[in-house]
Amino acid sequence: MMRALAITLALAAPALAFRGRSAGTASSTSLGMAKKAAVPYVETLPGAVPPLGFWDPNKLSEGASDETVKRYREAELKHGRLAMVGALGALWGENFHPIFSSADGPAALQIYTVPVPAIWAYIFMIIGWVEGGNIEKGWKTPAEATPEERAAGYTSLKDDWVPGDLGFDPLGLKPTDDDEWVAMQNRELNNGRLAMLSVMGILAQEAVDKKSVFEHLSGK
């Protein structure tokens, strides 16, 4: 199964890894449309595609507020994008590692072969840059938070924030047609979901038998 996931990911993930903004015209007004039409907000979001359709086996959306569902989608997009980059990084890093020449072997175990202070410095710098921009753009400041949020010690996403919309589209890939845009969002979500499963499979398999992805693919 791991081989099949790795092959599928290798073919599918690159196509969507740089799609940029994952929410836009179709989903930017979905919260308002849902309230006007009395349709659950979660059912207006992209991502419910055949063969599973709207799939929520753990009933996480039942009874959840629109704001909570919005945070769920924000988290799903963020984890999916990270997983796509991580999966490509695993395939690339097991064969090319120009930054840390000491890195070698399966991606799941390379963390033990590089200078620890240096690798964590890179990790925290990148995470801080990405998360700092996301917090600044998408999350309410303490002054904007509701009294209930301030009393609970947290803030929520801004009311007009579209989940995943970082404004990042350097290649100009965003379609102007609404239907094409929804289709692109569905592709990004599906690729992100596949990548999350694939990364878990890759890391688990490598941790067990200490073999890289390409060693598995070659049958060594």
Task: Please describe the biggest sheet, giving its number of strands, its sense, and whether it closes into a barrel.
Answer: none
Please provide the ordered H/E string of secondary-structure elements.
HHHHHHHH
What is the count of β-strands? 0
- End-to-end Cα distance, whole Å, is 16 Å
Fraction in beta strands: under 5%
- Tell me the Rg in angstroms: 20 Å
User: Can you give the mean pLDDT?
Assistant: 78
Helix content: 55-70%
Class from secondary-structure proportions: mainly alpha
Low-pLDDT runs of 5+ residues are 1-29
The dominant shape is: globular
How many helical stretches?
8
Feature tags:
220 residues, globular, mainly alpha, disordered N terminus, 8 helices
Structural overview:
The structure is a single chain. The protein is mainly alpha-helical. The chain is 55% helix and 0% strand. It has helices at residues 2-16, 25-28, 30-37, 66-93, 116-138, 147-152, 178-209, 213-218. The longest helix has 32 residues, at 178-209. It is globular and about 55 Å long. The two termini are 16 Å apart. Residues 1-29 have low confidence and may be disordered.
